[in-house]
Every structure is written in C-alpha cells, then in structure tokens.
Amino acid sequence: MPDYLIEPPDVLEIAAIRLVPKSPYTLQPLDSVVIATSGVLPEEDVTGEYTVQPDGTIQLGFKIGSVQAAGLTVDQLEEYLLSRLSEIYREPQAWVTLSALGAQQQVAGEHLVAPDGKVNLGTYGRVRVVGLTIEEARATIEAHLSNYLEEPQIAVDVLGYNSKVYYVVTQGAGLGDRVAILPVRGNETVIDAIGQIAGLTSLQSTRMWVARPGGNHCGGDQVLPVDWLAITQRGDTTTNYQLMAGDRLFVSEDKLVAFDTQLGKLIAPVERVFGFTLLGNSVVRTVGQGSGGGNGFGGFGGF
To answer: Which of 56, 138, 160, 276 is most deeply buried (CB count within 10 A of its CB)?
Structure first.
C-alpha cells in the first residue's frame, strides 16, 4: 500500500510530548502550577499542585485565601505569594512552577478532519492536514504550534481510517445494480470483498474483474480479470488481488437470469392485456347468462 494520505473524515490522535509556552507566559484558567513553601506551620502548608479556576483564582487555604493567578507570570505569582506569606510568617520561602497547560488539553486527544481538511486545536487555531502523510501532518502541526510554544513536540497517528474505501458493484440481472461501500483496512483481497457482501447470489455469475481508476501508482486505469474458480476451488491466489482505495470490484450478472428477466418484462404487458380481455369476456358472458336465466324463471313462474 502507498503512504496513507489524510482526508476527511479521518480521525487523528495527537499526543503531546513537549508543549512549553514561550516566555513570558501569563497563566490562564485551567493551567496547573506546583507550589512549594517553607517556613510555615505544617498544618498551614500550601505545598501541592493547584489548578487555576475559571474565574482566574487559586484557593490556598484558610489563612491565605483566594489568590488571583490568571494574567500573572509564574515569577509574578511567586512574588505575590511570598508577599502574602510574609504578612503571616517571619521568613517564609515560596516556589512556583508551571506543571500543565490548560490549552494542552485542546491539542492532545482525538481530532476529526473537517470537510475543509483542517483539524481544530482550540485556542491554537486550525491546521490544514488534508493530502498529507502522517509524518507531514506531524511536522505541519508542530510548525503551527511553534508560533505559540517553544520547540513543540507531538506524536500523530490515524485513529479512524474513514476516508479510504473501495466498492463492490454487483449486477442485478435486470433488477438493478447494487453498490457496497467498504472501508480499506490495508489487507483486503477479492475473496475478502465477496465475503463482506455475504457471497454471490443466483443473480450473479463468477465473471468479475477489478477496475482500478487512473492516477494510481501504475500510471493509468487498469482492468484486472479475476478467476473466481481458481481462487475458490484450486486455491490459486494469482488473481486474488489486494484491493486499494478507490478500486471497483465488478461482479457480472448471470446472462440466463438476465435474459429471463428481460423476457418477463416483455411478456408481462401482453399477459396483462390478455388478462383484461379474458376478464372482460368472462364478465359479459356471466351477465348474458344471468339475463337469460331470469327470463326463463319468469316464464315458469307465470305458468
């Protein structure tokens, strides 16, 4: 199979390996910080990890209370926290570090490729990935994130292969063709495709071929005849072709069944006309007999 090209509506899974904001970074709601302190009473120690609440504050216990963190850098928050502790304790120490970005949750996870070929990264905007390989998509997303982050590193994989399909077209012997759309998983062959549509019916013959559209790696349209009897009865895999995205497996109709169907379509109107004619004659005959019988009974009654 050629390199997989991303198209709508594939689903991408993005894992965040390194997402470090450019400095100076101001804290935003849902960011997480780690605070460490010393020189305070053990029962009033505020060491731990805290998440900036939607209102931009973090709650640091009863004595310190609520602290406004959104809009401050880590250093500014550290200085502010130290000043608040100094109002209570003699020689306190405080350290603040950024542990997680709230916006990181919008980068990592599952992302649907929209009809316009872009994936949505939340506050970091949208990135066009249509027509790219997985490696190219990773590089493109990292280049976009570098406008906001320091040397970002991510991992990209395809979680839902939804855009690549092949088709199984079965002639209906005069009763209409059927088309089954099946996803490409990378290892389907002709016999797999026939199994996916629950085999051949009495309307189909064993004559079939694979029609491969132009623009493929062979440079043009291809028609690949399939020897169904060889595949099924002799185990010959020569014509059991691997199916690729866009392939059409065409299964021809049974000619005798098709002829019978066409003949039935021609005869049916004639039979319908004859049926109406016979029905009309039968009604006229019945009415005539009923009228004659009435006269006879009338004469008998008069007698």
So the answer is: 138
